Amino acid sequence: MAAAGAFPVIPGTDISGVVSAVGDDVADIAVGDAVHSMVRFPEGLAGDSRAYAEYVAVPASQVAPKPEGIGHVQAAGAPMSLLTAWQFLIDPGHDHPNPLQPDPHEPVPLEGRTVLVNGAAGGVGHLAVQIAKMKGARVIAVASGRHQTFLRDLGADAVIDYTATLPEDVVHDVDLVLDAVGGPRTGRFLRTLKPGGALFPVFPLGYSGAEEAARLGVTVSTTQVRSSGAQLRQLGHLLEDGTLRVVLDSTYPLADARKAHERAARGHVQGKIVLTVA
């Protein structure tokens, strides 16, 4: 086996398919079961997840039954984005030390609150919009204007086209910002929050607004999404009954993985990009 991070690297983390073999110590998964998973994340980040493949070895604890009523393509699009949105907004689902900050990440109540989701049309964002709405929040979605009808259909109460209007200039007194884009510019959302509010950047690298956050009386918190078959099992019924929908931007055969990455690089993705195996 190649060392982690050594070439050739097989990328990818999310899968859905049919079990072809199980270990001797696996009791609750059988050959022929339809399952999905986020594979070895974050420990496999350097190339040990290896999901861009026809056959993938997965720890049994990270596997969940594929939700009935949706196909393998949608099920493959769910794990990373769904677990990220859920672990940020509802329940981290683990007690591992937080590698991104000294304290554990703590979600905040959503019912009756106003939640702004930045990057709302993307993989994490479009599921975060649905989860926040399901939990009783008023949801403001930030995305480019072409996604307005899409986001309204997912339940957003208001949509801001960031290409026409800067959200930080027009939004005030929200309870929570989930910034699915993150990065150095995430601090601009501090001014949209009411005192006691919270900013959750999914990608916090480059954030430098700690002093401003303290002055404004708002919390900034992030977490590292982790594989969890238990949480995927818990959330399966929400995908089965249509409460949550995984929307597909596009699909590509596995052999055209390069084209899928080129599509992602062009941006303005609506939902998920999925690779298929014939």
Automatic annotation (TrEMBL):
InterPro entries: ADH-like_N, Chloroplast_QOR, ER, GroES-like_sf, NAD(P)-bd_dom_sf. Residues 5-275 form the Enoyl reductase (ER) domain. Keywords: Acyltransferase, Transferase. Its EC number is 2.3.1.41. Gene3D superfamilies: Medium-chain alcohol dehydrogenases, catalytic domain, NAD(P)-binding Rossmann-like Domain. GO terms for molecular function: 3-oxoacyl-[acyl-carrier-protein] synthase activity; oxidoreductase activity. SUPFAM superfamilies: GroES-like, NAD(P)-binding Rossmann-fold domains. SMART domains: PKS_ER (SM00829). It is an enzyme of class 2 (transferase). This is Phthiocerol synthesis polyketide synthase type I PpsC. It comes from Methylobrevis pamukkalensis. The lineage of its organism: Bacteria, Pseudomonadati, Pseudomonadota, Alphaproteobacteria, Hyphomicrobiales.
